[in-house]
Amino acid sequence: MKIGIVFAGQGAQYSGMGKDLYEAYPKAKEIFDMAGEQVKEWCFNGDEETLKQTHVTQPTIYTTTMAAYEALMEELGNCGLADDLEVTALAGFSLGEYSALTAAGAIDEISKGIDIVSKRGTLMQQAGLDEEGNPKGGMAAGLGAREDILAAVEEAREDGILEGVNFNSPVQTVVAGDKAALKRFRRAAKAKKVKAIPLGVSTAFHSPMMVPAAEKLRDVLKEAGLKAPEKKVYANVTADDIMKDFDGGDIGEYLTDILARQAMSPVYWEEIIKKMEGDGVKAIVEVGPGKTLTGLTKKTCPDIAALHVENKETLEETVASLKDMIAG
Question: 2-128+209-327: which CATH topology?
């Protein structure tokens, strides 16, 4: 049976994430121990305000996600399901793309992934602050038709930064920009009967505000020794196989360019999930804290089984569901 695996992004964090995985699965414990005491403390005991800081959020979510992924693979092997399942597609939402590339072997060591995303988080946080150290932007989820949300963006941008940046489902598009432009967007959206919900993030991710971070991120990625993925990974910036446009040359430079662009470019998540459905995937398993992507899968492709793994309980439930699907 063909399945897809998707990896959680920023915003899914919560205090206590990964703790029972750490206690129940040896491979998960190994990953948390490798990440170090500071990351473990943030994951298991961090308060909401601390976990919202981008330089904290990114390594904690990545670590928890990779621990959950390894625990899932361990359990599928232990119960004999590994031979019955074919993972035909991987994808990760924003930060989660680094988890997807790790699972696919493009980032060949989890310790290397933790280092990359820690630096990425710091660069993105710095890019979103003004000279006095205050956040200069934010994000809002628009609930309604994509064309109406984008029309409101065009009306509200004026001379500021404002873009549609996360195309999440047929009824949800996230907008990012500077604070004044977001205020104008909320007024324009209301006039179009689009609900705009401010998001609890520290800046305007995936927008032109992230250009300085993207430029510095290139240097981090160039040093990482990125390799060709061993499984199909759908890229955020194209909603297509990340290797589709590779025509030879240095694979590290090719992937560096894609991941640097990703920090300042929109995420085409709705299109990615539809591509997975087109691959013949029968179940999409979200791995990592929260179940945001599971909800988006249900809204986008309701005929696909949407499962998630964030702790021992949900891992056991997902394995049981996959068993039933194979048997049935």
Answer: Malonyl-Coenzyme A Acyl Carrier Protein; domain 2 (3.40.366)
Q: For the segment 22-68, what is each residue's pLDDT rounded down to a tens digit?
A: 999 999 999 999 999 999 999 999 999 999 888 999 999 999 999 99
In 25-95, the DSSP E strands lie at 86-92
Displacement of CA 53 from its chain's centroid (Å): 16
55 flagged as catalytic: no
> Of 94, 169, 202, 265, which residue is the catalytic one?
94
pLDDT digits (tens, 9 = 90+) for 249-262: 999 999 999 999 99
- Residue pair 176/204 in contact by the 8 Å Cβ criterion: yes
Burial-class residue 173 by CB neighbours within 10 Å (0-12, 13-18, 19+). Answer: buried
Q: Which residues pair with 5 in a beta bridge?
A: 90, 285
Domains of the chain, by residue range, sit at 2-128+209-327, 137-201
The CATH homologous superfamily of the domain defined by 137-201: Malonyl-CoA ACP transacylase, ACP-binding (3.30.70.250)
| Model pTM score | 0.96
Residue 94 is a catalytic residue: yes
| Annotated catalytic residue within 99, 118, 169, 206 | 206
